[in-house]
Design goal:
The chain is mainly β. It is built from 4 helices and 45 strands. A 6-stranded mixed sheet has the order 2-1-42-41-40-39, with no helix packed on it. Strand 4 (about 45-50) and strand 5 form a beta hairpin. Helix 1 runs antiparallel to helix 2 (about 185-190). The radius of gyration is 24 Å and the shape is globular.
Length: about 550
């Protein structure tokens, strides 16, 4: 099949010169990659991360630096800031970007945990202004900081940390050592260590704590979501355990689900609508969040892998069946058969269709009736576990060994690339524990405001200026189709060595075609909101613009 694709190979020297080779086919517009800015540091750049405030945070040697994302100018520098300790195996607690450094999205506040400034004897939790680097407040340090969940209406946040259960961990290592002389070293790094979740509610502006509590259950590593309602803090762990704590006091209200060890399964969404908490615990259920009483359920679906809640309807995708129920009454609206190995579930709000993958391929069905619209057989090396809509006509499927794109109207495969290395969200902010080496996780731990009341409240408490908040609001409302991917494909050279070819790419929402660039550097990042790509060359971090021949950032959605 002939494809209209743009391929760009990029070379960048430390002098800042950019050489660009562009190959195009048919009517594809040529891309221009032009150096926007570069910054040189005395020490090698360990990592960097973009924030919702448009500030790039860079770690170089002992310094932490804030750069303007668009201009590259230095906004602030903390010349000597060190982690206050080391983890098991002698790992620096700041070695991974995002580890113990969390942004409060939309607030303009960056939290640095387990940190020492010159003269400090003990590690601290410090809040700084993202725009100027000035210290706002400091408190006693916490254990590993997982995330910060904003309470936009009150100007507060809930901090979530994980505390290693050292005694239990030591017992496991000793037990492993008794089995084999080879186990201790392996176990030290690989044993699923036990920990407790700790929650702390505090004021963003002052750091004053309202309450702190420890979740009285021992966990092993697994996927988790934390969400906050007007009255509760909800912990959803491994798609198995739902725990509810009082937002007012922090005390445990109720639990539901298995109490077993962790899970690395992709975390399902949990939603509260019309006074009901909707989530999966072996099956889809709606409960009264105050009493835990089950109001209605959707059962006999098999393992649930996808949930969509929209327009008064809850839809659950399982490996045996998919079904929809009225949220208010629980009455089942429709049910259809699926064929195992199901992915997540995506709602195309414009077409009012549902998109998913099962053992027979890629499907779209009418959200109102469950009737099939399109069935596309997949030609894939490994079966997808995740589907993301990349344009109005195109979806991207993510499997263990490859990432592909399909046109929903024609059924044609638009792109076939290697293993996913990084994912770049439109609403990037430092919110993961830890963030991946490159890019953002597929889903953020925290969110920007979702209601008018929350946005109005944020404008009164945020450090950010009105223009920045306006741009964030536009991203929250219209940020779809601005995602990007980084994939790597292994190739064998003539001498027998194996090398990996890394590509950054996305689907142009106007043409539904793949756009691909290959920067010759390390640690890439991509911000399609402003048409910039970032990379590191040793001591240097640089940014380049990605534009069409007309000069506009490539890949932005057409106006409604």
């Amino acid at each position: 099949m002939f494809r209209c694709m743009v391929r760009v190979a990029v070379l960048l020297s430390l002098t800042g010169a950019v050489g660009v080779f562009v190959g195009t086919a048919a009517k594809a517009e040529k891309l221009k990659l032009k150096l926007k800015w570069s910054q040189e540091f005395a020490k090698s750049v360990d990592w960097y991360a973009r924030t919702s405030a448009g500030v790039v945070v860079v770690r170089s040697g002992k310094s932490l630096v804030g750069l303007d994302e668009v201009e590259g100018s230095e906004l602030w520098i903390l010349p000597e800031v060190e982690p206050s300790g080391w983890e098991r195996g002698g790992v620096d607690v700041w070695a991974q970007r995002g580890r113990n450094i969390v942004e409060v999205p939309g607030m303009g506040v960056l939290l640095l945990n387990r940190v020492k400034f010159p003269g400090d004897k003990e590690g601290r939790l410090v809040a700084i202004n993202l725009l100027n680097g000035k210290k706002l407040w400091e408190q006693e340090q916490l254990d590993d900081l997982m995330t910060a969940v904003p309470l936009y209406k009150s100007g507060e946040l809930v901090l979530v940390t994980r505390r290693l259960e050292k005694k239990r961990f030591t017992e496991e290592i000793i037990a492993a050592a008794a089995v084999s002389t080879q186990v201790p070293l392996v176990g030290f790094f690989m044993t699923p260590y036990p920990y407790h979740f700790e929650f702390l509610r505090m004021d963003v502006a002052t750091g004053k704590a309202k309450w702190s509590t420890e979740y009285n259950r021992l966990f092993t590593p697994g996927t988790a979501r934390v969400r906050v309602t007007d009255e509760q803090v909800l912990l959803y762990f491994g798609n198995r355990l739902m725990g509810s704590l009082s937002l007012e006091s922090g005390r445990l209200l109720w639990e539901d689900g298995e109490k077993s060890s962790g899970s690395v399964r992709y975390t399902l969404p949990m939603t509260w609508e019309k006074g009901k908490l909707i989530y999966s615990s072996e099956y889809l259920r709606a409960v009264d969040p105050g009493t835990q009483k089950e109001i209605w359920s959707l059962e006999d679906l098999g393992k649930v892998t996808g949930i969509v809640v929209r327009d008064g309807v809850a839809i659950a995708l399982g490996e045996n069946r998919m079904a929809a129920a009225d949220i208010e009454s629980g009455k089942e609206r429709w049910r259809t058969k699926t064929h195992g190995h199901t992915s997540n579930l995506v709602w195309d709000r414009r077409a009012d269709t549902l998109i998913y993958v099962d053992g027979k391929g890629l499907h779209t069905v009418e959200a109102a009736t469950g009737k099939a619209v399109q069935d596309i057989p997949l030609r894939a090396e490994s079966w997808p576990w995740q589907v993301r809509q990349a344009s109005r006509e195109t979806v991207v499927t993510i499997a263990a060994g490859e990432v592909c794109a399909y046109n929903l109207k024609t059924g044609n495969k638009v792109a076939s690339e290697g293993k996913l290395k990084s994912f770049f969200r439109a609403d990037a902010h430092m919110d993961n524990w830890p963030m991946p080496e490159d890019g953002e996780e597929l889903e953020g731990m925290t969110r920007l405001p979702s209601t008018k009341d929350e946005w109005d409240a944020l404008r009164k408490t945020s450090i950010l200026d009105a223009d920045t908040l306006k741009s964030l609001e536009e991203i929250a409302a219209n940020g779809e189709f601005l995602e990007g991917f980084e994939t790597g494909t292994e190739t064998q050279e003539t001498n027998g060595s194996i090398r990996t070819i890394t590509k950054l790419w996305w689907i142009d929402p106007q043409t539904n075609e793949e756009v691909e660039i290959t920067p010759a550097a390390l640690h890439h990042d991509l911000d399609r909101r402003v048409g910039l790509v970032f990379a590191v060359n040793g001591h240097q971090i640089w940014s380049a613009t990605i534009a069409t021949a007309q000069g506009a950032p490539n890949g932005k959605p057409a106006d409604e």
